[in-house]
Design brief:
single chain, alpha/beta, Spore Coat Polysaccharide Biosynthesis Protein SpsA, Chain A, 2 domains, eight-stranded mixed β-sheet, 10 strands, 14% strand
């Protein structure tokens, strides 16, 4: 029996899915699940059909291909959970990639080992491929750590973890009332951020069309942890006007280099969340550094016009400071 984990490729209309598939080809799983949303207009749907044809033509290794294609547009919140649930009705574990998440070949081997090692550990709910801080001291000498976060740009998981997923977050009001965020999170700022975010996703007033916030909520509701590898094993190439969420090509999360991971793996002795890693991850990805007290006071008490003027001055001052720094560095290098 093969040890290779089934792979799920979720895509839409972008041909960057072929670059992801090129990486999957190096792993050559025996079972490949293709999940594709439909277009919002006839013209867009025609583009979706072209990408589906190109993806299927690129599968040139022996494998069982399963397809779940939508004739209409379901959006991320509708299509992705539907597809993953369909997969986990058939298999117990899987590696999940979207059309802009390109993995290093070591990612597949890493997922294999982690999915096998922690298959019966309910606290571990996801194996992430993304690491923004490969040199973070939280890793010490170990090959991975446990995080309350963990990026979902390329990950492995189990049917036993995914069964807790609910796209509508129906348990959010009860969780909010019972103090879930106080129990799970590290700072008051973090609690405030996620209270706003989860409230907007639950009430469907969120400005985006997410599925991953609900996945994070499901993990937190179970006290779940994610494995984060010491090396960054997945890079996101999805910036630009065709992106669903990260339209800014210069986004700091995109195009980050991938690295091989050292084998054999050095395993942590205990399953425990890394607080220092999560603090840095939360600031970098979600909520930034805490604002000084004087800025909080001004934001609360000054009229809107004055606040906007101060922001404008701050931006121009930051730009001038950056220009000054570049000129000093240039002078030193000459």
């Amino acid at each position: 029996m093969s040890s290779k984990v089934p792979v799920v490729l979720i895509f839409f209309r972008r041909r960057c899915a072929l670059e992801v598939l090129q990486a999957v080809r190096g792993y050559a799983p025996e079972r490949l699940f293709l999940v594709a949303d439909g277009g919002r207009t006839p013209e867009e749907h025609a583009g979706c059909l072209n990408v589906r044809q190109a993806v299927e033509a690129a599968v040139d290794w022996p494998c069982q291909v399963e397809r779940l294609y939508s004739d209409g547009n379901l959006g991320c919140r509708g299509n992705i959970p539907r597809g993953i649930s369909w997969v986990f009705n058939q298999v117990e574990q899987a590696i999940i990639l979207e059309d802009d998440t390109v993995p290093h070949l070591d990612f597949f081997r890493f997922c294999e080992e982690m999915l096998a090692r922690y298959a019966c550990e309910p606290r571990v709910m996801m194996v992430s491929g993304t690491n923004f801080f490969p040199e973070h001291p939280g890793f010490r000498e170990q090959s991975y750590l446990f995080s309350g976060y963990g990026g979902s740009w390329g990950y492995g998981t189990w049917a036993r973890a995914w069964r807790h997923y609910d796209a509508d977050m129906r348990l959010w009001p009860e969780a909010k009332e019972s103090g879930l965020l106080r129990a799970m999170l590290l700072t008051a700022q973090e609690q405030a951020y996620w209270n706003r975010t989860f409230e907007s996703v639950w009430s469907k007033t969120c400005s985006c069309d997410p599925y991953d916030y609900q996945w994070l909520f499901a993990r937190w509701l179970q006290g779940g942890l994610s494995i984060v590898p010491r090396s960054n094993l997945v890079t996101n190439i999805g910036g630009g006007i065709e992106a669903t969420h990260t339209k800014a090509a210069g986004c700091k999360f995109l195009g980050r280099p991938v690295q091989a991971i050292s084998w054999p793996l050095d395993h942590p002795l205990v399953v425990v969340r890394s607080a220092t890693f999560d603090q840095d991850y939360g600031r970098f990805v979600f909520y930034g550094e805490p604002r000084p007290a004087w800025r909080r006071y001004l934001a609360k008490h000054l009229p809107r016009g004055m606040r906007n003027g101060i922001r404008s001055l701050g931006r121009s001052g930051t730009l001038r400071l950056a220009q000054l720094r570049r000129s000093i560095i240039g002078a030193r290098s000459r």
